[in-house]
């Protein structure tokens, strides 16, 4: 698979050069591959968000390097191109919506790109349609639920037609339904539009739907791999301060009871299937 | 505890009336003309004509008059104090004196001056509120941006200024809601905002602004990052999704405005001022 | 301490063109020592209802009685009511206003004109109750706390007023799994050891299922269910219909039920599900 983002020994300090210098990233080596859904998880303060802000050059590396499609983010001339490739959605939707009307907000990015009027309208229509927001087109954001606002924020990024969307804890302040809908949107954008997704999250039931996961701890990458493999490393998961997905907790418990259930189950559907097989074999 | 209830300035009341359908530029220009004429008006006749005109616009727009004027309520005490000040302190040689009290004397000139100032404030407030009640923030700023465009040539960053206004207006409601939450959170811990006299209440409200400002700065910072991430680099090179178009309704409005302005200018020139 | 709500209705922006009714004829009573969960989709009126419990809203239609005291009563001492019914908000930044942790937590007792000594004693006690270390954190800058610590400081600040009722309004939003678990443990502990009546507002069925004995479900300003946690969960179809997400484990168990497993409908947590599934499988093996 082709590498979309590649970091080598990426290191970053907050308040660099002062006496309260804090090392937020410590020699991070990781990749984001074209077309994948990557989850980045870890406790608050583990460096997830700092890492994500390097992806579209909101932060420039202290040491080390980060390449987006081969372009170094440290070089200022590359920034406009990098921001066209990598879109970003943040935690609090209220702090990223600019306009007082939904469609105007979605047009904000394309307007910044200096696109012709006809194309802006076309892209806004497309983004509204793709995220099922057509009915909210003329609403002011303060009439929307938090989940809907976050969908609008995603549409605003989508209208810029990025190759990759980085979502920085987009569901942290949403109710479970809003959370599910945002996750579904992200998966749909990946499967149907081929957009690479990087999802930062605390919720393990979101992580299990991703192709790959990275666990951060104290500014460095502790684990990397497919969720089915990572969640088997129970000790490491606990020290990283994470949960286990519900299905894997039950599957592990049943295995311990001596039932014949294959290892690496993380999704409800997988467990369901496995249990039905077990039932028919009894 | 509802703070946002009495805020009418900057609130938009959607509708489909003649006034709502006007091009925002028409409304901005009309409001500007009315305000200039009001500042030049010095006779009761002029204010009466303006009241009639604005009143009929209000009826035309379908905005409940009571609601439009609600925002005046918190200003009333200040207005009364201003009126009393003018009544006693404005002096003009030879003016009729109504009564003496200690070193103060209420004169006819003072009465008219007080009335004039109150009328101006009332009318200015009503006109601007009426403008925002019938024009959405978005079309208001689009209109402003279009009207200010020529000023770019003399170096005024009009697009950036309007963008600042857009964001400020979006955040007014968010901050008002936030203020309400902070006050409630502190009331819940035993700060009695709803007890005590005016001064005591004001003093208690002070510590509330600290978390509000910290919150506002945090929001601003996040918003800047988010705008950056969406490739905002200022007004240059930006295009717009919507362009404004003037239509028949705007012509009708122009005719109405011309008639009103003509009449008012006539009154301003030929009637005797109150002061 | 009991809370009684009688025919309560409430509208936002009453008397303006934006008027919107958010509570419709609510009747409710919460007895001493209960642990009640209030759940409902966003905008269902949970917070507005709960802010009537500590007189942040005074009813216009209907009434609220706190230990028999009508909050509409002009003579009612609202500050005392607010000390008795402690309210912890979703965002701790609104509720914390002194520069250091210790000063902030001491605000309530000092505001009540208690002696400095008594205030300090209560701060010490409250910090211990929420698991904040007195020695290292007393002089810490409020802004230097983590999200989880801030929430615990906010709870401690309420506890120093010795509340009989604690209202917790969606206090786990934005926390990571460890922070969430810690704060929930503090709440359980307070309820069991201090016998504080607890009203826990959340939009997550997962959390409510493991915390509350009784659940009140709200939808568009009305109470649509009020009963023991298990009874409410047994009506999972209705809960899903109003847009609530069932806990993953409840969904799993119900799917297993329809696949022919012998399991009850209202399973609330993973441990319970595990033992029930184990039992069901063993039973099947025995009947082979």
Mean of residue pLDDT of chain B? 85
For this structure, what is the CATH class of the largest domain in chain C? Alpha Beta
Please count the helical segments of chain B: 11
Strand order of the largest sheet of chain C: 6-7-8-3-9-10
Largest interface: A-C, 37 and 38 residues
Strand content of chain C: 15-25%
Q: State the end-to-end CA separation of chain B.
A: 44 Å
Q: What is the overall pLDDT average of chain C?
A: 92
User: What CATH architecture of the largest domain in chain C would you give?
Assistant: 3-Layer(aba) Sandwich
Radius of gyration of chain B: 23 Å
List keywords for this structure.
heterotrimer, B: 275 residues, mainly alpha, 2 domains, two-stranded antiparallel sheet, 11 helices, C: 288 residues, alpha/beta, Rossmann fold, six-stranded mixed β-sheet, four-stranded antiparallel β-sheet, 44% helix
Write the layout of secondary structure elements.
The complex is a heterotrimer of chains A (282), B (275) and C (288).
Chain A: E1 3-14, E2 22-33, E3 37-41, H1 48-55, E4 63-68, E5 71-72, H2 79-85, E6 86-89, H3 102-112, H4 117-130, H5 146-158, E7 164-168, H6 176-193, E8 196-200, H7 204-207, E9 212-217, E10 220-225, H8 227-230, H9 234-239, H10 246-256, H11 268-281
Parallel strand pairs in A: 3-8, 3-9, 6-7, 7-8
Antiparallel strand pairs in A: 1-2, 1-4, 4-5, 9-10
Helix pairs in contact in A: 3-4, 3-5, 4-5, 5-6
Chain B: H1 18-21, H2 24-40, H3 44-61, H4 65-70, H5 76-89, E1 97-101, E2 104-107, H6 108-134, H7 137-148, H8 158-188, H9 198-205, H10 209-229, H11 248-270
Antiparallel strand pairs in B: 1-2
Chain C: E1 3-12, E2 20-30, E3 35-39, H1 46-53, E4 61-66, E5 69-70, H2 78-84, E6 85-88, H3 92-95, H4 101-111, H5 116-130, H6 134-137, H7 147-159, E7 165-169, H8 177-194, E8 197-202, H9 205-211, E9 214-219, E10 222-228, H10 229-234, H11 236-241, H12 248-258, H13 270-286
Parallel strand pairs in C: 3-8, 3-9, 6-7, 7-8
Antiparallel strand pairs in C: 1-2, 1-4, 4-5, 9-10
Helix pairs in contact in C: 4-5, 4-7, 5-7, 7-8
């Amino acid at each position: 698979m082709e590498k979309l983002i590649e970091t080598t020994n990426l290191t970053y300090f907050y308040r660099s050069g002062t006496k309260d210098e804090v090392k937020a990233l410590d020699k991070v080596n990781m990749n984001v591959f074209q077309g994948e859904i990557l989850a980045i998880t870890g406790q608050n303060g583990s460096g997830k968000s700092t890492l994500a802000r390097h992806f579209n050059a909101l932060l420039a590396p202290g040491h080390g390097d980060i390449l987006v499609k081969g372009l170094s983010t440290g070089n200022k001339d590359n920034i406009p191109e990098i921001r066209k490739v990598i879109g970003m959605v943040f935690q609090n939707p209220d702090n990223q919506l600019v306009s007082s009307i939904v469609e105007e907000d979605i047009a904000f990015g394309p307007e910044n790109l200096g696109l012709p009027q006809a194309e802006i309208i076309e892209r806004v229509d497309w983004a509204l349609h793709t995220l099922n927001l057509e009915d909210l087109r003329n609403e002011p954001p303060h009439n929307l639920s938090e989940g809907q606002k976050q969908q609008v924020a995603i549409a605003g990024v989508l209208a810029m037609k990025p190759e990759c969307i980085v979502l920085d804890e987009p569901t942290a302040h949403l109710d479970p339904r809003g959370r599910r809908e945002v996750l579904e949107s992200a998966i749909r954008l990946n499967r149907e539009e081929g957009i690479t997704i990087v999802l930062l999250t605390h919720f393990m039931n979101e992580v299990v739907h991703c192709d790959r996961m990275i666990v951060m701890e104290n500014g460095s990458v502790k684990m990397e791999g497919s969720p089915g493999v990572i969640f088997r490393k129970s000790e490491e998961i606990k020290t990283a301060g994470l949960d286990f997905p519900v299905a894997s907790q039950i599957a592990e418990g049943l295995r311990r009871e001596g039932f014949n259930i294959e290892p690496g189950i993380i999704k409800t559907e997988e467990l369901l299937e496995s249990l039905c097989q077990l039932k028919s074999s009894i | 505890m509802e703070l946002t209830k009495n805020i009418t300035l900057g609130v938009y009341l959607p509708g489909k009336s003649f006034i709502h359908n006007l091009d925002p530029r028409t409304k901005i220009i009309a409001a500007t003309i009315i305000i200039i004429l009001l500042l030049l008006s010095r006779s009761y006749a002029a204010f009466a004509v303006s009241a009639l005109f604005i009143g009929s616009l209000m009826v035309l727009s379908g905005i409940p008059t009571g609601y439009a004027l609600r925002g005046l309520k918190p200003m009333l005490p200040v207005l009364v104090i201003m009126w009393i000040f003018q009544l006693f302190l404005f002096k003009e040689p030879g003016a009729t004196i109504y009564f003496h009290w200690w070193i103060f004397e209420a004169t006819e000139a003072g009465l008219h001056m007080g009335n004039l100032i109150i009328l101006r404030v009332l009318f200015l407030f009503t006109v601007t509120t009426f403008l925002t009640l019938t024009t959405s923030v978005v079309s208001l700023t689009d209109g402003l941006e279009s009207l200010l465009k020529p000023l770019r040539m003399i170096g005024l960053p009009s697009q950036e200024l309007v963008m600042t206004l857009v964001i400020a207006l979006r955040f007014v409601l968010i901050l008002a809601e936030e203020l309400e939450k902070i006050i409630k959170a502190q009331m819940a811990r035993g700060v009695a905002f709803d007890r005590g006299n005016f001064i005591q209440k004001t003093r208690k409200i002070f510590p509330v602004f600290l978390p509000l400002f910290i919150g506002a700065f945090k929001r601003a910072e996040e918003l800047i990052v988010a705008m950056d991430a969406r490739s905002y680099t200022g007004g240059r090179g930006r295009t717009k999704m919507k362009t404004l178009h003037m239509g028949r309704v705007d012509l009708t409005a122009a005719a109405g405005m011309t008639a009103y302005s003509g009449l008012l200018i006539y009154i301003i020139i030929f009637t005797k001022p109150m002061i | 301490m009991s809370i009684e709500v009688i025919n309560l209705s409430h509208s936002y922006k009453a008397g303006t063109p934006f008027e919107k009714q958010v509570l419709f004829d609510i009747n409710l009573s919460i007895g001493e020592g209960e642990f009640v969960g209030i759940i409902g989709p966003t905008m269902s009126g949970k917070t507005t209802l709960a802010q009537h419990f500590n007189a942040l809203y005074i009813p216009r239609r209907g009434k609220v009685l706190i230990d028999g005291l009508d909050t509409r009563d002009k003579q009612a001492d609202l500050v005392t009511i607010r000390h008795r019914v402690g309210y912890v908000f979703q965002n701790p930044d609104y509720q914390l206003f002194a520069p250091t942790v210790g000063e902030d937590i001491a605000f309530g007792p000092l505001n009540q004109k208690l002696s400095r000594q008594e205030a300090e004693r209560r701060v010490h006690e409250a910090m211990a109750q929420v698991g904040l270390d007195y020695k290292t954190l007393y002089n810490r800058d409020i802004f230097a706390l983590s999200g989880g610590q801030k929430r615990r400081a906010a709870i401690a600040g309420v506890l120093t007023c010795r509340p009989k009722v604690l209202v917790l309004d969606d206090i786990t939003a934005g926390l990571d799994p460890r922070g969430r678990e810690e704060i929930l443990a503090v709440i359980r502990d307070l309820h069991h050891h201090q016998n504080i009546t607890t009203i826990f507002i959340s939009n997550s069925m997962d959390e409510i299922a493991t915390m509350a004995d009784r659940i009140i479900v709200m939808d568009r300003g009305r109470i649509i269910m009020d009963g023991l946690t298990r009874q409410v969960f047994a009506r999972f179809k209705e809960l899903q219909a109003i847009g609530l997400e069932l806990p993953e484990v409840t969904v799993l168990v119900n799917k297993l039920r329809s696949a022919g497993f012998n399991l009850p409908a209202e399973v609330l947590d993973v441990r319970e599900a595990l033992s029930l599934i184990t039992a069901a499988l063993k039973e099947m093996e025995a009947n082979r």
